[in-house]
């Protein structure tokens, strides 16, 4: 059976036989692709990172969460996590409303069903990230200014945004090459100068007006 990337949270698996099943990337209650959050003081480390951002490095320290399962945190709403490295991390279902993730490294991260409404993701690296069903209303996914005349676009190459709500989101200059936008909601979004070569947009709503 093909169970790749399936969400199996809350599913009773006591009678399962998974011989030969492809469960790569599947999310369950007991096993995920990431390191369990219990092995590290994740909340404290995120607070330290936020303090580091807010004080310009005078206090706190930057943190790396590559491959970590952060689901147990439930909410990191409003945190300043600029330049956070969380490649391949699991954020599934978290409340991340208004979080600041400018220039963050989130390549391959599991952001399915997260609340990222109003989040600042300018210049974020989201290549191959899974954002299916995510709430990205009014999110900022435009370019990040990193110099007087240098802009770093958000990178969503190969990202999956199936069913994501991007109403009112800013995706100017975003790299959406080979991204999956099936059934995505784009009413009021801005996709001016976005690179969409190879992107799949079957059933996307509001796309024409966004371009």
Tags for this entry?
211 residues; little secondary structure; two-stranded antiparallel ribbon; 4 strands
Structure in a nutshell:
The protein has helices at 42-54, 207-210, and strands spanning 35-36, 68-69, 144-147, 150-152. With 211 residues, the protein is mostly loops.
Number of domains: 2
- How many beta-strand elements? 4
**Could you give a short account of the major beta sheet?**
2 strands, parallel
Given the helix and strand composition, which structural class is it?
A: little secondary structure
CATH homologous superfamily designation of the largest domain = E3 ubiquitin-protein ligase SopA
Major sheet: order of its strands? 1-2
Supply the number of helical segments: 2
**What value does the average pLDDT take?**
88
Low-confidence stretches: 31-40
- Could you tell me the radius of gyration in angstroms? 17 Å
CATH topology-level fold name of the largest domain: Pectate Lyase C-like
* Net shape: globular
Proportion of strand residues? 5-15%
CATH architectural type of the largest domain: 3 Solenoid
Structural write-up:
The protein is globular and about 45 Å long. The chain has two domains: 31 residues, no CATH class; 172 residues, E3 ubiquitin-protein ligase SopA (Pectate Lyase C-like). The strands form two sheets. A two-stranded parallel ribbon has the order 1-2. The chain has a two-stranded antiparallel ribbon with strand order 3-4. The chain is low in regular secondary structure and 211 residues long. The protein contains two helices and four strands, in the order E-H-E-E-E-H.
